[in-house]
Design a protein that fits this description.
The chain is α/β, with parallel strands linked by helices and 251 residues long. Helix content is 33%, strand content 16%.
């Protein structure tokens, strides 16, 4: 049973239930030292995650072997942050990708948090492969200076029916290592964000575990293949309970 709040700390219960900063107190016109230092640490971690670079050798090991490395049209991190559109296009000198007839392409993209990719992408890929053992999966692609839409030319180049982009999400002050998964049917340049499905906040602590996320992603992929589309019309109904009698349609 949770401890009851005390007059000196009435927000104790709330702080145990959320990562949000509530009831931090005050020291004069500012914050007490401890919450101020915690805030500055979280801000520093978020900034570090945005500017982090992928450790490619460690990532390849986590992914279980080789991967094709590609680069967006952004030549460096500064250009990537200044012009998001550069991250949605492959670099002009990109070699042709090995085209085939694949059910699925998996793209691991640094996005705005290479920290998240480094920590969780390998586990998500392994869990997805286990759930989709009968699917034909294209060679893995690792993309640097990448935005979500970079998965569209990659998926098209590989000849994949579906693409999943695992990408580092924009860091916040409560999480700098959150991974997102974006699913697109029939990927090709020009796809809109409304034509994708997203599974977000994938992280070991305080979010969706890699195994839980892989279950949701696999469900969405199977439904997308069955229906022939992704996006706003494909609803994640995996976790919804069966309708009760009074919820069933009547004539």
């Amino acid at each position: 049973m949770a401890d009851a709040p005390t007059p000196s700390d009435p927000f104790a219960i709330l702080r145990r239930a959320t990562a949000a900063r509530v009831g931090l107190g005050r020291a004069g016109q500012g914050l007490p030292t401890a919450p101020m230092l915690a805030f500055q640490l979280a801000q520093a971690r978020a900034r570090d995650a945005v500017h982090a670079t992928l450790d490619l050798e460690t990532l390849r090991t986590a992914l279980g072997g080789s991967a094709i490395l590609v680069q967006s049209a952004a030549p460096d991190r500064a250009a990537y942050l200044a012009d998001p559109d550069l991250g949605r296009r492959l670099a002009p000198a990109t070699e042709p990708l090995p085209h085939g007839e694949y059910d699925l392409a998996l793209v691991i993209a640094d996005g705005l948090s290479a920290t998240a990719v480094q920590a969780h992408a390998g586990a998500v890929v392994a869990a997805l492969r286990a759930r989709l053992a009968s699917w034909s999966i294209a060679p893995l692609v690792v993309a640097r200076q990448a935005r979500v839409a970079l998965g569209d030319p990659i998926g098209e180049g590989l000849g994949a029916q579906l693409v999943v982009v695992l990408i580092g999400e924009r860091p916040g002050l409560s999480a700098a290592d959150s991974l997102g998964a974006y699913i697109t049917f029939d990927p090709k340049p020009g796809r809109r964000d409304s034509e994708r499905n997203c599974v977000s906040n994938i992280r070991a602590a305080g979010g969706l575990s890699p195994d839980e996320a892989a279950g949701k992603i696999a469900w969405l992929l199977i439904e997308a293949q069955r229906l022939g589309f992704t996006g706003v019309d494909l609803k994640d109904r995996e976790a919804l309970p069966a309708p009760t009698a009074h919820q069933l349609p009547t004539r």
